[in-house]
Write a structure and sequence with these properties.
Helices cover about 35% and strands about 15% of the residues. About 60% of the residues are buried. A hairpin with a 7-residue loop joins strand 5 and strand 6. It contains 31 helices and 33 strands. It is α/β, with parallel strands linked by helices. One ligand MGD binds next to helix 25 and strand 16.
């Protein structure tokens, strides 16, 4: 198959549906790794490069944020999807000026995300001038001064927004937020706003820190592990090794998810002989097919049942010592928990009472409980309340701050947690600003900035006119693609610091820049500049160094940090610019200043060169809770109530096994048995029957919010095992349906897992 420009693409439209896999990984994972290496960098370069991934002294996998083992590391410390990420970034295909001469931005926009991915690495800085439809080459110097001139001409610094995606290194993120604040705004939207913001909100207010409390080691001593609203087989594949080891040690792993995801059903370790032969370790001991958004009701049900069983058996499972010494608000929580109405909890969770009782028995007898979660919880209207209820469960049982127990929000991008630690947030606390002011002798702006949704709303109002993006794909990752497109096109300037082509290069402000950067596996150094390493922080708060060993894709590339420093030097007054000049010559200087501004980084440069890095302080691990009361807070969380009108289904938007967010590596969703089409909607058989929709039929999907309608036409309906009332389509194709203004309470996260829709047979 070829596209209209004669470029071969492999996007067969004919839908092939197979049987969902009953295990993850195994031999196919090895085969797929080899296929991707062959397609992109070539086998020799690819496999040699992989041996450096996640090794001490090597480079950190840029895909997900799952941690590496502290001590022993295998020589192949990666998974199929880590290998795909590496293959994608080390491809031998390069996009040069002739490519942009051939394709206008409209041509690029007409192509699929998969086609964008197949074109190769961005090779040199490119500029699209106002009124033109093509990009042409620009020097780095000119690019920096175009940005500086535009930003200086704005009516106020608050008319610019500075977006960060979670692959940026600590050094790049730190310099980026500093540049933004020295320029004079806190408009620092980031991908976290659309991701784990609900976890941050819930955890900060209850345990005093916005991140998880467990270490990888805790998985070895836990006896019950809940995996809630997460698909680790695809999105955090090596988490399955931790779950497999825990299961072999006798731990019970329980999945709570409307879908029975493959990795959780069984896992064949591709690097163990039995695994290669497909012998699987069953991981989930039990599966709870919760209704979409039914988790809050389920956890309330479990809590109520624990009290009931305690009363029946005359034996309390509550940790009274912990509650007394370390917590606040228990009595009110306890009273509210008892008064919850079990029938409504069963109805809202979709889980029968006897199953809730069974889950309560398992959790009640646990000596070490870990709860893991991801987007299935955070991207819900009541995501913050649900996570707070999980915190309640852990607090009442004293399951925090002891070996084998704790809270585990599993973070997305490889350095998304680090970027936040570095100050990429639109509302950093005042101590952070105080420290910045002291170290850099300036007055940082204190007014909170815009998050992602607020930035788009401000662009639509005309209040934000310039958007500078440190990585990511702002257009396709954001909700409501058509509104976001309009917002971006109204901007005067959009800047993308990127590695590979994506839709945000095709849908732009009047003037647009593509600034291509190095990837982590490449050497960041030149003849006049000693090669540098960078640092990252994983999902469990370990900070480590990462150094590339591969030759850069082209000689025109700069590192993210160099690019940020370049913009800062062109934009800021001399005294401030000189800081960035210093930083760009030696990243140790950046780390020395991070140490002064951010607690936990003492002797940063020294400690980070130790193999394996170091853990950041984490109060709750030692039962220190830095909330206002100084104690862990119990909360009361009410159920969301009715969320669907008659005839509506709840649509979730999720990832296939063959993509990294908006990067579509291939067209398969292997573990779900779905091949070769992304424009599909998975539905429950009964819901299809009621609508006279047969498997394979074309349907139109309409989302409903506050009387507004958003539509996607001609999607293919696929019968899939999930609770009635639920349906699923892929991110980013289905983002058109996600309303911009429908966000989670408190965190303002778009509710990408909770879109009320109607589905009808297509007319034509
Ligand atoms: N290979 C690969 N790895 C990745 C990514 C990628 O795209 N590709 N993305 C990275 C990023 S940024 C992130 S944030 C993570 C995302 O990791 P995940 O959160 O695992 O990603 P999703 O595909 O959004 O899957 C969400 C899961 O939640 C379930 N779910 C949906 N609604 C509900 C609900 O109401 N209740 C419950 N209990 N479950 C529900 C879905 O069925 C699905 O299994 O992965 C990271 N790692
Ligand atoms: N409907 C729906 N929408 C969602 C979600 C969902 O589940 N459903 N998930 C949300 C979540 S959890 C997230 S995190 C966001 C993701 O939002 P983003 O982080 O904005 O999106 P990505 O697809 O991860 O960004 C991919 C692009 O980043 C660039 N890139 C890759 N590596 C690097 C690098 O090392 N440096 C730099 N500078 N650039 C690089 C490449 O050009 C690539 O095209 O999407 C959110 N949107
Ligand atoms: S689990 Fe995540 S960090 Fe580890 S190799 Fe796989 S994709 Fe990379
Ligand atoms: Mo994410």
């Amino acid at each position: 198959m070829q596209n209209k420009k004669g470029i071969p693409i492999k996007t067969p439209k004919d839908l092939k549906v197979g049987k969902p896999a009953d295990k993850a990984a195994g031999y196919m994972a090895v085969q797929k790794t080899l296929e991707y290496m062959h397609r992109e960098p070539g086998l020799v370069k690819g496999m040699a490069g992989l041996l450096k991934m996640n090794q001490k002294g090597g480079f950190d996998c840029s895909s997900c944020a799952w941690p590496d083992p502290d001590d022993h590391r295998a020589s192949n410390e990666y998974c199929e999807n880590g290998a795909k990420a590496f293959a994608s970034e080390s491809t031998s295909k390069i996009i040069h000026a002739d490519f942009f001469k051939k394709f206008s931005i409209q041509d690029l926009d007409a192509e699929s995300d998969h086609w964008h991915e197949l074109q190769g690495r961005l090779g040199e800085p490119m500029l699209k001038k106002e009124g033109e439809n093509h990009y042409s080459p620009v020097s780095w110097e000119d690019a920096f001064s175009i940005i500086a001139d535009n930003l200086k001409s704005l009516p106020s610094p608050d008319a610019a927004a500075f977006y960060t995606s979670g692959r940026a290194s600590n050094e790049a993120a730190y310099t980026f937020q500093l540049l933004t604040r020295m320029f004079g705004t806190n408009n620092l939207p980031d991908c976290s706003n659309m991701c784990h913001e609900s976890s941050g909100s819930a955890l900060t207010n209850t345990i005093g820190i916005g991140i998880g409390t467990v270490t990888l080691d805790d998985f070895n001593s836990a006896d019950v592990i809940l995996v809630v609203g997460q698909n680790p087989g695809t999105n955090h594949p090596r988490m399955l090794s931790a779950l497999q080891a825990a299961a072999r040690n006798g731990a019970v792993v329980i999945s709570i998810n409307p879908l029975k995801e493959a990795g959780i059903k069984g896992f064949a370790h591709p690097q163990e002989i039995e695994g290669m032969l497909g012998v699987k370790t069953p991981i989930a001991a039990d599966h709870f097919p919760v209704k979409p958004g039914g988790d809050l009701a389920l956890f309330k049900g479990v809590i109520k049942k624990i009290y009931e069983i305690d009363a029946q058996e005359g034996k309390s499972s509550v940790d009274a010592d912990f509650i007394k010494e370390f917590s606040n608000g228990y009595e009110a929580f306890h009273e509210a928990a008892l008064s919850a109405d079990m029938d409504s909890l069963v109805l809202e969770s979709g889980i029968p009472e006897d199953k809730i009782t069974r889950l309560a028995h398992v959790i009640r007898s646990s000596k070490g409980l870990i709860t893991c979660w991801a987007m299935g919880l955070t991207q819900q209207d009541h995501g913050v309340a649900t996570i707070r209820e999980i915190v309640n469960l852990h607090l009442m049982l004293g399951m925090i701050g002891k070996s084998g127990a704790g809270l585990c929000p599993v973070r997305g991008h490889s350095n998304v947690q680090g970027d936040r630690t570095m100050g990429v947030w639109e509302k950093m606390p005042s101590w952070f600003h105080d420290n910045l002011d002291e170290v850099y002798a300036f007055t940082s702006p204190r007014k909170h900035g815009y998050d992602v949704v607020e930035s788009i709303q401000a662009m639509l109002r005309g209040d934000v006119k310039s958007l500078v993006c440190l990585g990511g794909n702002f257009l396709s990752a954001s909700p409501d693609t058509n509104q976001t497109r309009k917002a971006i096109e109204q901007c005067d300037l959009t800047v993308q610091i990127s590695t590979k082509l994506n839709r945000s290069h095709a849908v732009t402000g009047k003037t647009a820049l593509i600034l291509p950067c190095l990837v982590r596996s490449e050497i960041d150094g030149r003849e006049d500049f000693k090669s540098q390493f960078i640092t990252t922080e994983n999902s469990m708060g370990v900070v480590q160094s990462s150094e590339g060993h591969n030759k850069p894709a082209t000689q025109h590339l700069l590192s993210e940090t160099q690019i940020v420093c370049g913009i800062a030097q062109a934009l800021l007054p001399e005294e401030q610019a000189s800081v960035f000049k210093r930083y760009s010559r030696d990243y140790n200087e950046i780390r020395d200043d991070i140490e002064k501004v951010i607690p936990g980084f003492d002797d940063f440069n020294e400690r980070v060169t130790e193999p394996g890095g170091f853990y950041l302080p984490n109060g709750p691990r030692d039962r220190e809770f830095t909330t206002e009361s100084g104690k862990a807070e119990f909360t009361q969380n009410s159920l969301p109530g009715k969320r669907l009108e008659e005839g509506q289904l709840m649509l979730q938007t999720l990832r296939t096994h063959d993509q990294y967010n908006t990067t579509v590596y291939g067209m398969e969703d292997r573990y779900r048995g779905l091949y070769f089409d992304r424009e599909i909607i998975m539905m429950n058989a009964e819901d299809m029957g009621e609508r006279n929709i047969e498997h394979g039929c074309k349907v139109d999907i309409t989302s409903h919010f506050k009387g507004e309608k958003r539509e996607l036409k001609n999607f293919t309906a696929v019968e899939y095992d999930m609770p009635s009332g639920a349906c699923a389509a892929y991110f980013p194709e289905a983002n058109v349906l996600v309303p911009l203004d429908k966000t989670a309470a408190e965190s303002n996260t778009p509710t990408s897992k909770a879109v009320p829709v109607t589905v009808d047979l297509s007319m034509k």
